[in-house]
Write a structure and sequence with these properties.
Largest sheet: 6 strands, mixed
Strand order of the largest sheet: 7-13-14-3-15-16
Number of helices: 28
CATH class of the domain at 1-95 and 559-641: Alpha Beta
Oligomer: single chain
Strand content: 5-15%
CATH superfamily of the domain at 1-95 and 559-641: P-loop containing nucleotide triphosphate hydrolases
Radius of gyration: 62 Å
Helix content: 55-70%
CATH topology of the domain at 1-95 and 559-641: Rossmann fold
């Protein structure tokens, strides 16, 4: 049992709290207003049970000074001291079973959700110590299998550097080859030759030089063309006349043709009808003649590009490139240097250009004459043919060379390269397979694979045993939970509970049944989050807790701590909660209940008292977490729940009784003030609905005295009325509302005792 709390320091509102003056009982009830430290105390006890220091660390006193750290010291039965210092417990107390917000958050739900880890913790809580061995085996096997799997992955990652396109099994099964280095060398030599074929197949080949296209037909046609309607004599006259003037004069005369008339000069007005030079102008500037001269003017431009030295230079660029390419093939395809007579080609081009230039000039001087003789035309054809023949002869040599190269290429076998490379690759992988470093890696891989298989087998066996245990216990656990929910008057049940191994460790799997409809514990739509009230959720969590501790074979040696079990519960559920706690209190070593509901704690106290024989004083202790000091910290104090729960009538009755008996510690003024309200309460209870609630004691006496004969008040004897009036005269002087000078009135103990006895006599006897 927990006997005393020697200290709780710097945790929440417990700045320096202790119960050194008080000892806990087998049944200990602790009352506190909300926010006074109940949850903090429950967390401290839960931390002591589990050894989880974080439950204390996160509740460290907010305004504690530097150097003030959380400290706890508990005293259990047989003088066992358990302390929390330097962030850790001196020893755990697993027999402490705590139901509080931490239990709910850890095992059932948080806010509006049920997390996977909570379902895992709930299963651990439900199974208790019976599953510890197999769970430990599973966890250890899982961890070892995980380490082995990591080793497998690590070695496979290293082996992947060597296995190339093979599977791991294929790589491991490769047999050793004694003369592997010699075989690789032979294949490397063969590959060198084969790789040359790839290079030669990709090598450039010579190309043909485009044959020149010398077409001078249009040129010669213009040279031979004349205009029949233009007289040569008129042309000579115009030319003779134009020669007398500066350049541009012909253009000026041409433009002036648009302004003259047939008879008169546009300048002097004289008759030009029979003027000889004017007639010649008209023929010279005829439109057909103008067009003809334009054609002659572009004659040279049309042929100049065909017969420039650049044409030959272009051929030579291609020819020289071809020669470089041909030279690269000489090792495999013998070929003589292909000759092209550049100088001869240039001579022919220049001769042709000179001839065409002279013919063009002659035509431009005498546009109306037939220019070019048959010899000229034959020479043009001769020069052109020489150039064409030279290119054709060159291209024939190129054609022969290309045939030789293509025949050589056709003999190359590209596929042999791939075959040789594949053979070399296989030998190199085999060589790597039997290198010592790889042999070591394979050995590690095999050992890790064996270890994983072994641990998987151990885990499977342990799971089989654990599954059988969980199947049996989970079924019983679920049935008891539903029984509790039914007794609590809950409108929901849980569907048959099961378990799964999602995430590795086993965890509960359940759903809710509400109005014959399945409600999932998570997910969208109708679920635990929306289908249950806060009271329902708390009831579910409490049922989980109770179902487990009821089935705990070590309950008789356990301390059960319940924090605010009535939170968010209606009256029916509170009643059954009291019943459950009474039953648990009989079976466990110690029951500690923390609550903020005075009347719940009082009724629970009454239930617990009934469990004790009359000859034995109940081992029930009640404490209060009260505010101390100006800083509002919390400390423990003895607490009388009965007194705290009594109404004003019973309170006043107790005060007068204790005073008359001589056991009172109440101030005399408070006792004197209690006489009138006690008698008022008595009369209201004796004559229900007959006395107006708003009447003061003196008015009540007058109402009784003046009551009609048909009123129940008429049964009060006059002697009683006189006695009530006398008592009122005495007690009225101590009430501020009727006697502002009540405080200075001296209260005599003997006199007060007399009037207290007279008031009690009326209550008991009904008469003075």
């Amino acid at each position: 049992m927990l006997k005393k709390i020697h200290e709780i320091k710097n945790i929440g509102l417990f700045h320096n709290a202790t119960t050194n003056q008080y000892a806990f009982g087998k049944h200990t009830l602790i009352y506190a207003e909300n926010g006074r430290g109940k949850s903090t105390l429950a967390s401290v006890l839960s931390s002591c049970s589990s050894g989880d220091a974080s439950l204390i660390d996160k509740r460290k006193t907010v305004d504690s000074s530097v150097g003030e750290v959380p400290e706890v010291k508990f005293e259990f039965s047989n003088g066992l001291q358990v302390s929390f210092t330097s962030g850790r417990w001196s020893r755990q107390q697993p027999h402490l079973l705590v139901f509080d917000t931490d239990f709910v958050e850890r095992n059932v739900y948080s806010g509006v959700q049920i997390r996977p880890d909570q379902r895992q913790n709930l299963l651990d809580f439900a199974l208790g110590s019976q599953s510890i061995s197999d769970k430990r085996v599973i966890e250890e096997a899982t961890n070892r299998a995980s380490v082995a799997q990591q080793q497998i992955r690590s070695t496979e990652k290293e082996l992947a550097k060597y296995i190339k396109d093979l599977s791991l099994e294929e790589f491991i099964s490769l047999p050793p080859i004694p003369d592997i280095d010699q075989q690789i060398e032979i294949l490397q030599n063969a590959l060198t030759t084969a790789k040359r074929s790839s290079e030669l197949l990709a090598r450039a080949t010579p190309s043909f030089v485009p044959s020149p296209n010398f077409n001078f037909t249009d040129f010669l046609n213009v040279l031979s063309q004349t205009l029949q309607d233009i007289e040569i004599d008129a042309e000579k006259k115009v030319n003779s006349h134009l020669a007398r003037y500066a350049n541009g004069f012909e253009d000026w005369i041409s433009k002036g043709q648009a302004y003259h008339s047939d008879m008169d000069c546009p300048y002097c007005g004289q008759s030009i009808k029979d003027n000889e030079i004017i007639g010649a102008y008209r023929k010279h500037f005829n439109q057909s003649y103008i067009d003809f001269k334009k054609k002659i003017s572009t004659l040279w431009k049309n042929v100049e590009a065909l017969i420039s030295d650049a044409v030959v230079e272009g051929w030579m660029g291609r020819i020289e490139t071809n020669q470089v390419i041909i030279n690269t093939w000489n090792e495999h395809v013998p070929a003589n240097q292909i000759v092209f007579d550049k100088e001869s080609a240039l001579t022919n081009v220049r001769e042709l250009r000179s001839l065409l230039s002279s013919l063009t000039s002659a035509k431009q001087v005498n546009p109306l004459e037939f220019i070019g003789t048959d010899d000229d035309r034959q020479n043009i054809n001769c020069f052109s043919q020489r150039l064409v023949s030279g290119i054709e002869a060159y291209n024939r040599q190129i054609e022969i060379t290309l045939d030789n190269i293509n025949r050589f290429k056709s003999q190359l076998q590209q596929s042999s390269v791939e075959q040789i490379q594949e053979q070399i690759k296989r030998l190199e992988i085999t060589k790597l397979r039997h290198a010592q470093s790889v042999i070591d890696l394979i050995s590690q891989w095999k050992e890790a694979s064996t270890e994983k298989t072994t641990q998987d087998g151990i885990k499977t066996s342990a799971k089989t045993r654990l599954n059988a245990l969980m199947t049996n216990l989970i079924q019983q656990y679920g049935e008891r939970i539903n029984s509790l929910l039914q007794n609590f008057g809950a409108s929901f049940q849980i569907a048959p509970m099961s378990f799964n191994y999602q995430g590795g460790s086993p965890r509960t799997d359940y759903s809710l049944i509400l109005r014959d409809t399945k409600v999932n514990i998570s997910g969208e739509g109708i679920s635990f989050a929306t289908a249950l009230s806060e009271g329902d959720k708390r009831t579910l969590a409490f049922a989980f807790f109770i179902a487990k501790i009821e089935a705990d074979p070590s309950l008789s040696n356990s301390i059960v701590v319940v924090d605010d079990p009535m939170c968010s519960l209606d009256e029916n559920r509170k009643e059954h909660t009291r019943f459950i706690l009474e039953d648990i209190g009989k079976k466990c070593l110690q029951l500690i209940v923390l609550g903020h509901d005075l009347y719940f704690l009082r009724d629970l106290q009454d239930r617990l008292r009934k469990g004790y024989p009359r000859s034995i004083s109940p081992d029930i202790k009640c404490f209060q977490l009260k505010r101390v000091g100006q800083d509002g910290y919390t400390d423990f104090a003895n607490f009388n729940i009965d007194n705290a729960c009594e109404n004003e009538y019973y309170k006043h009755h107790r005060m007068l009784t204790e005073f008359v008996e001589g056991s009172s510690t109440t101030e005399l003024l408070d006792i004197a003030k209690a006489i009138r309200p006690l008698l008022e309460g008595y009369l209201h209870r004796r004559f229900p609905n007959c006395i107006d609630r708003g009447l003061v004691f003196g008015d009540i006496i007058r109402a009784i005295r003046n009551s009609p004969s048909n009123s129940p008040l008429s049964y009060v004897e006059s002697s009683v009325i006189d006695e009530l009036n006398a008592i009122n005269l005495y007690a009225g002087q101590f009430h501020h509302d009727t006697n502002p000078s009540a405080n200075p009135v001296r209260i005599r103990d003997t006199e007060l005792k007399t009037f207290a006895e007279r008031a009690l006599k009326i209550l008991y006897k009904g008469s003075p």
